[in-house]
Specification:
This protein has 284 residues and is an alpha/beta fold.
Amino acid sequence: MSLTSLLDSSSVLRAKLRDEFRKPDFRVKSEIKAPPLTPHYGTVGRAFDYLFRFYIEKLNPGARTSGWVARQGLAYVMDEPDFPKAKVIFEEAEQRYEKFMRSDRQQPTREMAEAAVMLAHLELIFRDDVVDPMMFNETPKAILDDLEAMMALVRPEDFRANKICILNPTFGAGSRLVHGADADLLIDGTLIDLKTNKHLLLDRTIFNQLVGYYVLSQIGGISECKEARIDVLGIYFARFGVLHKIRIEECIEQNRIPAVVDWFKRRGWQQSDQELASRHATGS
């Protein structure tokens, strides 16, 4: 269970979010500046999350961070024959990260792009219980070129924090409600989700994910910083170099929020319990 799977599985929840949260018109127009160079979209998307995270951490030295999900992926294969090779991959990525963080460089190097791909493969194990055979091979040049092309579009002024920068923020009781939820980035009062889609599109699925994170933050706060709050929702379209922002007040009347949060708590627990019971019954 996760926020994403909860949204995918519950038409009732999707309808509730549609009724309560207005999706503002999205009128941004831009040509794609970093078109995909490889069909490995999932790997590139996960790897960009890590590479972007490395950059943001250097840009904001006081950034707070939760652990890498990739480490949990490594734990998943602890008793498997591939564990020694997976452990070497993780340790290599960790060493490259530490070297980069000690360096004077601001922009991640190509070897950091390789490290991001290593971590992306390990995260896939945790997220989907899948070991991609490509994990044990040399990273294709096109994947690294793709990642570097997107990084070249990042504007530091869009992501430099005045006070608070949290990488992969979690939401305390809110995250536990859906058995795990972590967003990409919180800068001051703006929650930002990264998208490597090749279309500049803000559809209801993306919007629901963002407002879902907002509701979870209303339930459990921001685990990494008690003073943090979410006032603005942001989507960064990495292939376009576009950061789009939506103020919460554009989406919902403030006096409606307590009732929505209460409803989400009750429905969330019910949905989670049903899924756990189903998994137990099927032995999965």
